[in-house]
Amino acid sequence: MRLQRLYQITKTLLSYGLDDLIPKRWLPWTVRCGRYLLFWMPNRHRDKSAGVRLRLALQTLGPVWVKFGQMLSTRRDLLPADIANELALLQDKVPPFDGAQAQRLIERALAVSDISLLFDNFSQQPLASASIAQVHTAQLRLLDGSVEDIVIKVIRPDIKNVIHADLKLMDTLASVLAKHLPDGKRLKPREVIREYRKTLLDELNLAREAANAIQLKRNFEGSDLLYIPKVYSDFSRENVMVMERIDGIPISEVETLRARGVDMKKLAERGVEVFFTQVFRDSFFHADMHPGNIFVAKDDPLHPRYIGIDCGIVGTLNREDKRYLAENFLAFFNRDYRKVAELHVDSGWVPKHTNIEDFESAIRTVCEPIFQKPLAEISFGHVLVNLFNTARRFEMEVQPQLVLLQKTLLYIEGLGRQLYPELDLWKTAKPFLERWMAEQLGWRAVVRSLKEHAPYWAEKLPEIPTLLYDNLREQSDIQRQQLKLSAALLDSQRQASDRRFWGSLSLVFWFASWGLLFLEKPWSAIIASTAAAVKRGGVARIKEKRVLWVEFLGHKF
User: Fold this and answer.
1) Could you say which of 288, 346, 477, 498 is catalytic?
2) Least packed by Cβ within 10 Å: which of 70, 234, 249, 447?
């Protein structure tokens, strides 16, 4: 199966002529020779541009590759404009599957014979189509007799088989890379693929996506930063999800936003604030923030609010990860590269034997040129390449649990570059991080901890006298048990002493008997020596018992 899929991938890439996009000098002679041997796979789309060929190839290969194209579409600083524009079409312009088939899937999932029993005005023509699912419009009848506009998301049929095949192939390739690449162990390709596998398979479960959306909506309840549409859990299943239909402007339609008078600077700044709020306040962040999933509300252009959909991929961070990231960000913003280097060593991301001075100098060389510049003049792609080279030099290991966060950061930068290129990312993010760190340390953290635990202590306070009494009684029981064990130990030692005494006496009589038979000594001498031995043994036994009783009585009283 894997070989078959590998052949299909190779054939697709070559049929669309994607090998022409790679400079010949970058290809080893073995790869060039292999290309000539595959003469029956010529470029069949020479009349199309490079961007169109790349987009069509990714669409043909399936959702795993479409997701990769979606991420690339936000990296306009790394790609030519025509390629970036074509890849942007992958965000919600993937060819749909048959609408009648989608209706049958919905009816089967919701266990109804006809979709009209639950929804009015269901449209078989999809509103949007993406790599894993597509969306249809309808109306939901409410209990009060009114109707509400909704959308129904349904997973593409038979998509799981394709995804599992690609993931198996990717895992095989990752194993080869881990074994043969010099940096294979440090880069942890298998761990990264395992993390990607988990997130991608989670996206196939719309019941999980519904739960994620409900959590995000609760986190931003009443906020003017982000709105998450309402989810109707009663009509959501593993392959079907029903949610409120939103009316917003796609974030990618920059000209439309400007024409409506949207404050682009505030919109970009709020995007940064939304990201950091999700990561550091909630530890629960939307990890698929490409332009196809982000809209802007139409109600207040001077105070624009984001609308987020497609919550299938979310990321979480534990307390240690958050603290480490916040300290690193603040150290970067303050240009404290020494602190950055020490944090990397303390966290175990680089070995303990790393020279702090050399590492500090390397980080300064990469990061110092990007400060005090607007986003339009900063290429984070180039910065990441330089940081990668620095990581290789200092044996820094890839942290798979942060892959989603890194991907989301790339999305945020891509969005910021499109909305307001003059955005000062550092100036926008630094106050938020400083405020968050202040809340985690000092008296504010103590007060917050007391508030958080106050209900627990209030509940346990009436139980404290009982718990104290039970503890004292338990201690008394433990002391009595210890005394019993001590007495049992003394008795065991006494019995062992008795056994040694009678054993010694038996041995003495045994020798005496042999003496009478073979040594021909007088009976009087034998008896006298035996009596002396018995006396010595008895005295020793009495002394031993007296010591044991003294120890026992001293322990007891």
Assistant:
1) 288
2) 234
